[in-house]
Design a protein that fits this description.
Layout (H helix, E strand, L loop, with lengths): L2 E10 L4 E10 L10 E7 L6 E4 L1 H9 L3 E2 L1 H12 L1
Parallel strand pairs: 1-5
Antiparallel strand pairs: 1-2, 2-3, 3-4
Length: about 80
């Protein structure tokens, strides 16, 4: 089972103000499928956007061989530079 660290959409669909969970999930699962572990959240609707990730859990999954999606990798890179 290949594990990815990616965003899972949550929030209100009626007014398209989504927020996202950062999750460890099997690559074959759908975007909103069952995740293995919740690692944090991302809320782009707030000013400035809020990103909160549990670094210990993230590092645990990376050590197990999980791969980050391009979006999560970009968010973490932007977090480090700001």
């Amino acid at each position: 089972m290949e594990v990815r660290i990616r965003l899972q959409r949550a929030g209100k669909a009626a007014n398209k103000r989504y927020n996202y969970r950062v999750v460890a999930i099997s690559r074959s699962q759908a975007r909103d499928g069952r995740h293995l572990e919740l690692l944090g959240y991302y809320d782009p609707a707030k000013q400035p956007a809020v990103l909160s990730i549990d670094r210990e859990k993230l590092n645990k999954w990376l050590q197990k061989g999980a791969q980050m999606s391009a979006t999560v990798k970009s968010l973490l890179k932007n977090l480090k530079t700001n």
